Amino acid sequence: MLLKVGELAKRCGLTVRTLHHYDTIGLLTPSARSDSGYRLYNRNDIARLHQIQALRRFGLALADIGTVLANPGSHLAAIVDQQIQMLGQQIAQSTMLRERLSQLQGQLQRGEEPELADWLTTLEMMTMYDKYFSKEEQKNFPLLSTAENTTTAEWAELVKAVDEAMEMNVPPQSPGAQTLAKRWMTMLMRDSKGDPRLLAKLNRMHFNEPSVQAQSGVTLDMIAFVQQAYAETKFAIYEKYLSPVEMVFMRENYVSGTSAFPELVAEVYQHLESGTATDDPRVRELTLRWMALVRSYAGDDPATQLKLREAMAQHPELLEGSGIDQRLLGYVRQAIAQLKPH
Fold it and tell me: E-assigned strands of 26-95?
């Protein structure tokens, strides 16, 4: 079946002038012409037009499209697959926007006057999340929802409680502060499903984006307060194994020493999930960093480090909130055992 230029333009939503232009620049030359000189397009021409339009949607210039299509390795199936992925992203973005519009509609129907600043901030947050998280991660991570739900309400309540504790100068060493910190870390691990990669990205976003801090109410001072209070829950266990001198060193260095762990744990976890061998040079480098971090708060004495391992063996709760489970810990220990002495 052959289509004249006017028929093809009508059926694909383009103008005749556009198709003429494609022909002029050699991007889409019809396979035949009628006796009267009309351009005639066959099935292969239409398939090529689909590729052209798909690549246009990806933002490529016509000259670049010509280069791509001139490559024998270009396949229609691959381009269609890319187009499907792009549409999937657009659908996800549209779904998020629809949820926010529904919230706005509900406010208007209740006679409430939405603040323009709130509306703009929400849109800004949606864009901000795209910088750090994939659409799938945003979908499965309740903390990133811009819609009101049970999880966001629960976090808002906890953030308010921590903020009030800080306003009242409640010390991190107090039972009340430690209870809040335990609840914080439990909820964080629950909502991230314990995936250290999500935790690392969340940390990165909060530290790098003041607008996220303002919107969520989770300031850097609040994070530091929670970290210190949570560390105190662990010190209560380590005190059973370490000497007073060892505890002084740990208390002085633990929070600063462990602050780099989220990113490192995420990198190691990715290698574990990818099946990277523990003697791989990349894992070796991460393992050396891991050992250096432990020394930063435990010191260089092997006897002290042995005490820490004994404490962890007897108290698995010391790993809670770190994103480290027994499987990951076993992976690291195997990598340490394979390090060659210098």
Answer: 32-33, 39-41
Q: Which 3 state secondary structure label does DSSP give 41?
A: strand
| Class of the CATH-defined domain 3-74 | mainly alpha
Write out pLDDT tens, residues 325-342: 889 999 999 999 988 664
Start-to-end CA distance of the chain, whole Å, equals 74
Residue 41 phi, psi dihedral angles, 5° rounding? -110, 130
Q: Report the C-alpha gap between 235 and 254 in whole angstroms.
A: 9
With vertex at residue 174, the alpha carbon angle to CA 173 and CA 180, rounded to the nearest 5 degrees, is 100
Question: What pLDDT does residue 122 have?
Answer: 58
pLDDT digits (tens, 9 = 90+) for 285-303: 999 999 999 999 999 999 9
* Residue spans of beta strands (DSSP E) within 148-255: none
Closest by CA to 267, choosing from 255, 256, 254, 280, is: 280
